[in-house]
Amino acid sequence: MASMVSTSCPQFSGLRRSCPKLETQSFSQHINSHIRLFSSRKPCRSVVAMSSSNKFFVGGNWKCNGTKESITKLVSDLNNAKLEADVDVVVSPPFVYIDQVKNSLTERIEISGQNSWVGKGGAFTGEISVEQLKDIGCKWVILGHSERRHVIGEDDQFIGKKAAYALSEGLGVIACIGEQLQEREAGNTFDVCFQQLKAFSDAVPGWDNVVIAYEPVWAIGTGKVATPQQAQEVHAAVRDWLKNNVSAEVASKTRIIYGGSVNGGNCAELAKQEDIDGFLVGGASLKGPEFATIVNSVTSKKVAA
Ligand SMILES: O=C(CO)COP(=O)(O)O
Questions:
Q1: What's the confidence (pLDDT) of residue 207?
Q2: 100 and 68 in contact (C-beta within 8 Å)?
Q3: Average pLDDT, integer, range 232-260
Q4: Which keywords are on file for this protein (predicted)?
């Protein structure tokens, strides 16, 4: 898929030169459209072409939901679902049900932890170690989810250290970033996402096994999904940040998935966006057929490409 990656352009003259929409809009109309679209303090962005071809990735984050009975039904629905072949599919059950899921779920779907301890296991009451996740068959762990950041109080550095440890032990990391509503309204969306990204970047040994999940906090569990344009704008900015701060190769190869009120009805339009490489799904991942629809939205991506 071809993707357009934006670079910051604080100079109006630079924007005038490089933005094709200026041909059809007055300069002030154009600036205002950027401000409306981006809801950010950095409205002026020039665009450079960049291509990436990433395998679609869809994760189901079951959070703290389910019982032995409901999970038996969910697993059975997933086992019976027809899933497009060229998608990495991962589910993340609550820790206590991972073994049940591992023993009954098709191997087509990989399993993730929802969190992991920051170092080797030991005397850390209530924690789950990376070693234990691997032992029980997990290939991934979700780190930096907004509920861990804002409800439990984990900070950027702690999350970065967790990611580094998980990667060093061979677990893939679904690294979550995203702004809260007041941060978006204050025009700080990019600043917040970049700061969270930098904390991961400062800590991790490499990006091969990392999937970035952009999950605006205001969209999580609220039914208020980001528009495809809002999501694409941040995904492009994240890719651009990787290009400028890590490498062009990492920028093009790292999958950036969207999370926040994704469902069977809105996934296709989101999937069409150039820099959306998949989804991290909460509520809708608890319904097998709907989760399958979201996985299969990769077909919209192919049509759009
Ligand atoms: O937090 C999420 C996935 O990690 C998203 O949750 P919802 O899909 O329920 O909004």
A1: 98
A2: yes
A3: 98
A4: Isomerase
Confidence of residue 304 (pLDDT cuts 50, 70, 90): confident
Q: What does the pLDDT look like over 161-204, one tens digit per residue?
A: 999 999 999 999 999 999 999 999 999 999 999 999 999 999 99
Cα end-to-end distance, the chain, whole Å: 6
CB within 6 Å of ligand 1 — which residues?
61, 145, 215, 220-221, 259-262, 280-284
Q: Ligand 1 centre and the CA of 265: distance in Å? A: 15
The number of residues in the chain equals 305
Closest approach atom of ligand 1 to CA 219: 10
The string over 263-298, giving b where at least 16 C-beta atoms fall within 10 Å of a residue's C-beta and e elsewhere, is bbebbbbbbbbbbbbbbbbbbbbbbbebbbbbbbbb
Distance CA 293, CA 51 (A): 26
Which among 220, 258, 262, 285 is the best mutation to test ligand 1's pocket, defined by most ligand atoms within 8 Å of the CB?
220
Nearest partner of 192 among 173, 209, 176, 208, judged by Cα? 176
Predicted confidence at residue 27, as pLDDT, reads 38
